[in-house]
Write the structure tokens for this entry.
Amino acid sequence: MKVFSLATLTLKRNKKQYMIYGLTLIFAIVIHLIFSEFINNPYLIEADRARGIDDPLGADIPLSMGLPFLIILFCWFMIIYASQYNFNKKHQEFGILFTCGFNLLDFIKYTLIQMGIVFIFVLPISFILGVLSLFFIHSKIYPYLQINYSIYTIMPSTFFTTISALCVLVVIVIIFLIGQLHKSDHLFNRATS
């Protein structure tokens, strides 16, 4: 059986597990997109800085500075953790693949195919929900900060930042998976010898 057909077959059989994984990814990507907009939107940065300095309550920590970056880091951790948790539940599946003669490259292909299929469904839903959320947030925050700009404009760098981060996170997940497989391979070789 080829790697692609085996990856899609196991994806179909474990669809409940992958749906939970997909919902976690959707949540993390939507939050990442929202807070990337806070960092990348020059209108929010300037208006928020001016509002923070002139505010009589003395709130001089702008919305668009440190907090969004920390929340984005939390989203990265959440995506990596959800991916690791998803792959840690596959000990039996990976054991069967080891006995079928899968090598490291086959495992990487197998994992990339499954993650690719999940991301094909997750990314459009995440971006649609993120954009709708941003329209709502802009409609509330622009009048408060006295920004005269369309609430329907989202900075292109927001999408670029989110997609770039997801590519890096997929590479990190694959590196963690390689380490886990290398450790499992040593344990499997000790058990069979």
User: Anything to note?
Assistant: The mean pLDDT is 81.
